[in-house]
Each structure stands twice: as C-alpha cells, then as structure tokens.
Amino acid sequence: MQTLQQKREYTVAVLDPAGNVTAIVCSDVPAAERARVAAQILRLPELGIEQVAFLTAPRSGGEIRLEMMGGEFCGNALRCVGKYLYDKRIVKKEYMTIETAGGIKSLLLYTRNGKANTISVGMGKADLDAMSLPTALPGSTIINRPVEIAGGTYHITCASVGNPHCVVFCDDPSALDLETLGPKFERASYFPERINTEFVRIVNEDTLRMRVYERGNGETVACGTGACAAVIAATENGFVEKGKDITVKLVGGDLVVKYTDHEVILTGDAVLVYEGVVEY
To answer: pTM of the full predicted structure?
Structure first.
C-alpha cells in the first residue's frame, strides 16, 4: 500500500539589499534537508532570489546563527537578517551579533518608525595575505600586480573578506564583456580555488563604480564583500583615503564601505519584498 509523504511548511521572507535578493528561511529546517529546500526556493523566478539563508540556533555565540546556501559568506545577507530579526521583534535591540561560518559578526541598526532602515555590518579585519585566497602568485600580498589573463595584461589587487576577491581598476566597467572575461578571471591558474572579481572605476575620492563576477554565480547585480574588497583595493592603491565612508555604486544600488586598520564596515538598506509560507 502506497503512502503519501506528508508535506511540511516553512516561513520565508525575501529581502532586497541593493539587488542581492536574499530569501531567509525562518522555520527550523533539518540540516539534511536544507539543500533541497534552498533549490526549491531558488527556482522561484518571479522573486529573483540569488541566495538562501537559514536561521538556526547559535553554536558558540550570537543572537542567532546564519547558514548560507546558494552563495558564499555575504554581508548583504547579514543586513537582511538583521532587518528581519529587528522588524519582527525576534531580537529587540539595535545592536546585535550573528554567528556565521566566518565567526561572530556585529550589526548596528538605524531605525525609523519602529523598523530597521539602514544596517551596518562589521565584516571583520581585511585580510591582504596572499595565501588566504589562496594564490599561486609569489609574494605575501598582491597589490597592483601585473598578470596575464585572457590574452591581456591586467593589474590586480587581491583581498579576502570572508571570501577571496581580485580587483581590477578600469576606465569603464560597463563596456566590458563580463560574460566572456569573468570566467577567465574566475578560473585563472593563479587562483586554484577560483576567485570573485570586481571591475572598478574610480569616480572620485569618495565614490567607486563597480561590476562583479562571482565565482560559481557569474555576474550579479550586487555583492557586499565585493564592495568591501573594492574599497580595500582602492585604499591600498592610494585612490581613496583609509577611514572614510566610500560609496560603491553597483547595478543593484549603492553601498557604503569604511575600511580602517581594525575592521571593514558595510552599510546599506534592505527592503522586504515578500513574506509567506511555502510547502515542501
């Protein structure tokens, strides 16, 4: 006799933090089922979801633990989670900590009318150690280093912000054929575990404009860690001043990054675009 598998329900909130649309699964989903649930959510084309975040009980600290599926460690996802926790009164304070695979991250929320309006995330200290990427290039750091990729010479600067990034400065990122060029950087022999690449224009001493090609995802309209890497690279190359708020303009919207000797702070807003219950 055949039995029907009982369906389960989970609550999902979808937030847009400058185009990097994130689905937060608010129900307790067993670890063994998260990949299947995430795949089902990512197949919802009308919402444009790029990544899925699961909220779980913390293991070693923080208000809650963030588990990412369908994407790497992401500052934009952290901002979404912070807004959701505050707006739903799950965490009733404007300073909170969230446990991630990359450690405990701190969030500061600026509120208006009882809702989180702008969220700052402490992304940790910038890591310029070349071996953190890792890379086959010699030297302890990769700053303004000429390399041969896709038949051309590019000057690259690399940093890790929880995941590895390669930054290329250029006159007009919008003119680049990233569908062709992006994979050449991602899979260049210099980066045995592949790399995220940002193509950046210096607009002025306070503003950058950027496109990003993420490893495993292709071009995306926003990337929080990529924006951080762009400001780190611009600072290390002397284009902007360390410790200042730098606006990074991406296809999906603007982010603000402050790079200091002690940490990198990512700031931006997030908007709730969908909330409901899904069966699986």
So the answer is: 0.92
